[in-house]
Amino acid sequence: MYAIEYQKPKSVAEAAQALAKSGGKALAGGQSLVAAMKLRLAQPGTVVDLGGIAELKGIRKEGNALVIGALTRHAEVVSSSVVKGAIPALCALAEGIGDRQVRNMGTIGGSIANNDPAADWPAALVGCNATVITSKRQLPAEQFFKGMYETALGPHEIVTGVSFPIPKRAAYSKFPNPASRFALVGVFVAQLADGAVRVAVTGAAPAVFRATAVETALAKSFTADAAKGAKVDAKGLNSDLHGSPEYRAHLIPVIAARAVAAA
Q: 120: buried, middle or exposed (CB in 10 Å: 19+, 13-18, 0-12)?
C-alpha cells in the first residue's frame, strides 16, 4: 500500500480548491477509482472525497427538464418517482448497471466523468441531448465525451449535475457482458419534444456515438422494423474477445429495434 492524503470538503468551491492545490483525484462513488488504485493503474497523492457535498445530490424537475445531481446514486435513480414520471427509461437504464453494490455506491457524475467506453449513462446523455453542468460551465453531452476515458473536463473542473430535456418517448436496451453487465452494445433511443430522433450507442466504439443510419430510418418510421433494417458501418468499432466490429455493427440495429419496441 502507498500513502495518500484524504480530504473531504463540504462545498464544490472547497473541492475545486483542494484539487487545484494537490493535483489529486476527485472521488465520487469510488466504483472505478478505488479499483484502479488497487491495481496501481491510478496512484493519486491526494483523494478529494465529494461525498460530503450536499449540493451535488438530488433529483428535481426544472420546467421541461429533469436535473440529476452528480452524486445521485444509480439506485436512487431507479427508485425515484420523479424520474419514473419524467423519463422512465433512465430508471430502467440505472437498474441494469452492475450489481446491487455498484448501484448503491456508484454515481451518475462519477460514471460520466470516468467515461468508460462500455458505460450506460453516456448513451442516455447523448440520446436525450442532455447538458452536463460543471463547476465552471454547461456543455452539451456530445461535446463532453471526447474519447476512451476522455472528457472535456478541464483541470480542477467538477461535474455538478446533468440536465435531461424530457423526451416524448425513450428507451434503453443493451446486450450485456454476462459477467460485468457492461454493454457489449447498448442503444438509447429517444424522440425529443420537437419530434427529432436521436440514437446513441455505447460499448461498440471507444466512446459513445450517434447511430445516424438508425436515426434516419426512425425519422421516416418510428418502428422496430425500421430500426432493424438500418445498416451500420463497422469501421472504427471495437474488436476484442467479445466480438468483432462486424458483429457489433450487426448488433446495433437489433438492439435499437428492441429499444424502439420498449419506447
A: buried
Tens digits of residue pLDDT in 54-86: 999 999 999 999 999 999 999 999 999 999 999
Can you name the CATH fold of 55-165? 3.30.465
What pTM, to 2 d.p., does this model score?
A: 0.94
- CATH dotted code for 5-49: 3.30.43.10
- Residue of 236, 233, 231 lying closest to 214 (CA atoms): 231
Q: How much of the chain exceeds pLDDT 90, in percent?
A: 82
Residue-range domain boundaries for the chain? 5-49, 55-165, 169-262
Residue 222 reports pLDDT greater than 90: yes
Residue-wise DSSP of 143-201: HHEEETTEES--TT--EEEEEEEPPSEEEEEEEE-TTT--EEEEEEEEE-TTS-EEEEE
Place of cell 419496441: 261
Backbone conformation region of residue 216, classed left if phi is above 0, alpha if psi is from -120 to 50, else beta: alpha
In terms of DSSP bridges, do strands 46-49 and 25-27 run parallel, antiparallel, or are they unpaired?
parallel
Grid coordinates belonging to 39: 491495481
- Cα three-residue angle 245-209-92, rounded to 5 degrees: 100
The CATH code belonging to domain 169-262 is: 3.30.390.50
Is 169-262 in the same CATH topology as 55-165? no
What's the pLDDT tens digit per position in 185-204?
999 999 999 999 999 999 99
Task: Tell me if 65 sits within 8 A of 165, measured CB to CB.
Answer: yes
* pLDDT for 1: 58
CB burial readout 48-70, b (16+ within 10 A) else e:
bbbeebeebbbbeeeeebbbbbb
